[in-house]
């Protein structure tokens, strides 16, 4: 698949790159995508929720009324969950929500997500660039030139670039990551996927195994 390479001004450089068919043109596996996104979202959960149960509530342990003859249900403790101020019955406890998936399935999910973006023509290949200093206005100019200032965008770098990363931090709708940090969720969550030229080799190398 041939894709034109643009510069930071949004203009065609006259060069084209060939996106690997093994990564950007496979038969998408929707279930693999679902499982990988499910794992990503589950792993974001802290699982630190906790409610006090009757054994953890401070209160009297005396039997509050006699067992029989009251005409109402028996009650043995004021700390019971049926009384106001009592413990919570079957309340949430700390737990680990993380899910494990094998590497081949995660690799298939990422390739499926990239293929979906390629089919929708939502992938832009940008030549490598850098800023002299981290400035928001420099990154704003790039977004305007690519006409994506009002869209969610994901910039994928081939190597760490602190100036570009810091310049993008004020934009909630834009994110800058390394090619090794690419995930199915981040690919699908972005309206436009901006791949820098230097990132392509790493992406194809990681996903062609």
Automatic annotation (TrEMBL):
Region (Disordered): 56-77
Keywords: Ribonucleoprotein, Ribosomal protein, RNA-binding, rRNA-binding
Protein's UniProt keywords contain Ribosomal protein: yes
Cellular component GO terms held in the UniProt record: ribonucleoprotein complex; ribosome
GO BP annotation list: translation
Gene Ontology molecular function: any one: structural constituent of ribosome
Pfam families from the UniProt entry: Ribosomal_L4
Family: Belongs to the universal ribosomal protein uL4 family.
Subunit structure: Part of the 50S ribosomal subunit.
Summary of the function given for this chain in its UniProt record: Forms part of the polypeptide exit tunnel.
Protein name as annotated: Large ribosomal subunit protein uL4
Gene name in the database record: rplD
